[in-house]
Design brief:
Blueprint lengths: L1 E4 H6 L1 H9 L4 E5 L2 E6 L29 H4 L6
Parallel strand pairs: 1-2
Antiparallel strand pairs: 2-3
Length: 77
């Protein structure tokens, strides 16, 4: 965690914003006490990879067939 006093933050705001956007935690202090924390609005996420459940999940051949008793068709002609 990086702490910066408010006067230094005014001078280096652009650079501090870039650092915070890359994930560094930056706290701006006023009169020696924590005042605000700079954090990115949209943290970067690793791209999703396909096939994460491959080999762990089995889908039945009749997975989309609804039993008659569930469909309410039992006893109808």
């Amino acid at each position: 965690m990086k702490t910066v006093n408010i006067h230094e933050a005014r001078r280096r705001l652009s650079r501090l914003l870039d650092e915070a956007a890359r994930g560094e935690e930056i706290v701006i202090v006023k009169a020696g006490r924590p005042y605000v924390r700079l954090t990115p609005c949209f943290p970067e996420r690793a791209p999703r990879t396909l096939g994460g459940w491959e080999g762990r999940v089995r889908i039945s051949e009749d997975f989309d067939r609804t039993p008659d008793e569930v469909a309410g068709l039992q006893g109808r002609s």
